[in-house]
Specification:
Elements lengths: L15 H7 L16 H10 L3 H11 L2 H16 L8 H11 L3 H13 L7 H9 L18 H16 L3 H16 L24
Helix pairs in contact: 2-3, 3-8, 3-9, 4-5, 4-7, 4-8, 4-9, 5-6, 5-7, 6-7, 7-8, 8-9
Length: 208
């Protein structure tokens, strides 16, 4: 049995099937695991079935919100490079929300999301940050639930963008997967990726 998926302490102790059902998402791989199989068990089965894209998809929905958005931000950094000057408005807004998930920073993510140019390959970061709260905004909008797949789909999409831009798609798929697993263990996922100039990763800030 693989030890690659051990100690994913940040991932909820809930069946993988329930996490996916709540988001109305289906994996492309037909599973033999029981309905109550944990995320770790399903990840192990997916690895044995050589289904790396489904591994990424499950991780995108299984990680907690802030950790998931941070993972998307790291993927965006693959496209922009490190540092404040390299960051797009979408990436800046998403990173700011990760480090301080205030209503103001969420509003900035909404503005970045809605004003992003069509060629902004990092816009999904802002989408993820905005929908991470699970609703459609502040005030009265907080009573309206966000689309169930909005956060996970944005995070998954951002990682796919990064892999698509990489010189070696398969090799970079391993990189982004290992990032997610490091984050799931409580790390910051940045061993192989550039960090921001002015802040530590959310794991160092006590993200939940």
């Amino acid at each position: 049995m693989s030890e690659r998926f051990n100690d994913l302490k940040k991932i909820p102790d809930a069946p993988a099937s329930r996490i996916l059902a709540m988001a109305q998402i289906k994996l492309g791989t037909e599973l033999s695991s029981p309905a109550n199989a944990s995320v770790q068990q399903v990840l192990e089965e997916l690895e044995a079935a050589d289904a790396p894209v489904d591994i990424l998809l499950l991780l995108a929905f299984a990680l907690p919100a802030r950790e998931s958005v941070w993972w998307a931000c790291l993927a965006a950094r693959d496209l922009t490079g490190p540092g404040k000057k390299a960051a797009t408005p979408s990436l800046k807004a998403a990173e700011a929300w990760v480090f301080s998930p205030t209503p103001e920073n969420r509003e900035n993510a909404r503005v970045a999301m809605e004003t992003a140019f069509n060629d902004d390959d990092t816009s999904l970061c802002a989408v993820a940050a905005f929908y991470a709260e699970g609703n459609m905004g502040e005030g009265d909008m907080a009573e309206i639930e966000a689309p169930p797949a909005a956060l996970g789909a944005a995070v998954f999409g951002m990682n796919m963008e990064a892999m698509g831009a990489a010189e070696d798609f398969v090799a970079h798929m391993e990189v982004v997967t290992d990032r997610a697993l490091d984050i799931a263990r409580g790390g910051n996922g940045t061993a192989d990726a550039p960090a921001t100039e002015d802040a530590d990763a959310p794991a160092d800030k006590g993200a939940h």
